[in-house]
Design brief:
Layout (H helix, E strand, L loop, with lengths): L2 E11 L3 H13 L5 E14 L2 E14 L7
Antiparallel strand pairs: 1-3, 2-3
């Protein structure tokens, strides 16, 4: 049986929304294996002195490793 877990992340980028999403997945991938999907639930653009930065809220889903020791 496969179990999927979902966590919510907030990520930012000075470049683009796509880059913010890539940042979220890259950071999550450092400690989480088996990432399956990412769902962006909110997008924000922050303006500071005419410069735009992007922020996203996203939900990352990943399969929980079901290889338990049976010994």
């Amino acid at each position: 049986m496969s179990i999927v877990k979902v966590i919510e992340l907030i990520a930012t980028s000075d470049k683009s929304i796509d880059d913010a999403l890539r940042n979220a997945v890259a950071e999550a991938s450092k400690t989480i294996k088996n990432i399956d999907s990412d769902n962006i639930s909110n997008i924000k653009a922050h303006v500071n002195n005419g410069e735009i930065s992007y922020g996203i809220n996203c939900k990352v889903s990943f399969r929980v490793d079901d290889r338990a020791s049976t010994n």
